[in-house]
Amino acid sequence: MDICIVGGTGLISTALATLLLSRGDRVTCYNRGRTPSRLPSSPRLEIVAGDRSDRAAFERAFDGRVFDVVVDM
User: Fold this and answer.
1) Which residues of 41-53 are buried (b: 16+ CB within 10 A; e: fewer)?
2) How far is Cα 51 from Cα 59, in angstroms, rounded to an integer?
3) What is the pLDDT of residue 40?
4) Among candidate residues 54, 60, 62, 59, the one with its CA nearest the CA of residue 3
5) Where are the alpha helices (DSSP H) in 1-73?
6) Whole-angstrom Cα distance, residue 67 to residue 69?
7) Centroid of chain to Cα 29
8) Cα–Cα separations (whole angstroms), residue 8 to 21, 25, 27, 67
9) Which of 16, 26, 41, 58 is most solvent-facing, going by the fewest CB within 10 Å?
10) pLDDT for res 7
11) In terms of DSSP bridges, do strands 2-6 and 69-72 run parallel, antiparallel, or are they unpaired?
12) What is d(CA 71, CA 37) in angstroms, rounded to the nearest whole number?
């Protein structure tokens, strides 16, 4: 599955992303980049930096992308 997590650096979202990666899913985390990532390195992991309150930038970051699941943390 191709999964987007809005957030991804907190305790629960880090555990969720780690579990998904271990299952073989592709994970994209969208967050401000202020908190260091504790996620394992993986070719199936993409970190996209941005502020969700900037709607135009959020939309540009995902223009044309399709995910099976989006999790808003």
Assistant:
1) ebeebeebebeee
2) 11
3) 87
4) 62
5) 11-23, 55-61
6) 5
7) 1
8) 13, 15, 10, 16
9) 41
10) 86
11) parallel
12) 17
